[in-house]
Amino acid sequence: MRSAPQYRPIVAFDAKTTGYTLANILDSCTKISWWLQRDDPAYIELDTGGKYNPDFIAIDTDGTHWLIERKSDNNVARTEVQAKRAAAEEWARFVNDENTFDTWRYLFCSEIAFKNAHDSGDNLVIAAGGP
């Protein structure tokens, strides 16, 4: 049985074309059992010494945990965005190789991926080049 939409009573998204769109896709996707827009201090360390906080975390009905990052098409090629992407992909590989935790995946979504997904969570994973 699908639970009610999982928006907080008051939610702020910094971009309708990415954050708000992703929240709607996650809410409507039957394969997502839980998601949240992150606002806690947990982070992934970057090789540069900086910190990266993924935008969303979701758990699908198979129990796979997803770190999800969304970016405008204008920001995709930025050096710091690519460094964060590499760090998240490395983190997911490390956690999965440890075989101590559940399976983790990383999904990087641009505006073009949202457009190509046609508001479908299943299509979003394909459009974003996910596993």
Written account of the structure:
There is one protein chain. The chain is of the alpha+beta class and 131 residues long. It has a single domain (1-74, 103-120), classed as Trna Endonuclease, Chain: A, domain 1, CATH 3.40.1350. Helices cover 36% and strands 22% of the residues. The chain contains four helices and six strands, in the order H-E-E-E-E-E-H-E-H-H. It has helices at residues 16-28, 79-98, 111-117, 121-127, and strands at residues 32-37, 44-45, 51-52, 56-60, 65-71, 104-110. The strands form two sheets. It has a four-stranded mixed beta sheet, sandwiched between helices. Strands 2-3 form a two-stranded antiparallel ribbon. Strand 2 and strand 3 (51-52) form a beta hairpin. It is globular.
- Helical content band: 25-40%
Quote the distance from N terminus to C terminus: 26 Å
In CATH, the topology is named Trna Endonuclease, Chain: A, domain 1
Net shape = globular
Largest sheet: 4 strands, mixed
Residue-averaged pLDDT: 81
Low-confidence stretches: none
Number of helices: 4
Strand order of the largest sheet: 1-4-5-6
Number of strands: 6
Q: What proportion strand?
A: 15-25%
Query: Strand pairing plus helix content: what structural class?
Result: alpha+beta
CATH architecture: 3-Layer(aba) Sandwich
CATH class: Alpha Beta
- SSE run: HEEEEEHEHH
Domain count: 1
In brief:
The protein is α+β, with helices and mostly antiparallel strands and 131 residues long.
Describe the protein's topology.
Blueprint: H1 16-28, E1 32-37, E2 44-45, E3 51-52, E4 56-60, E5 65-71, H2 79-98, E6 104-110, H3 111-117, H4 121-127
Parallel strand pairs: 5-6
Antiparallel strand pairs: 1-4, 2-3, 4-5
Helix pairs in contact: 3-4
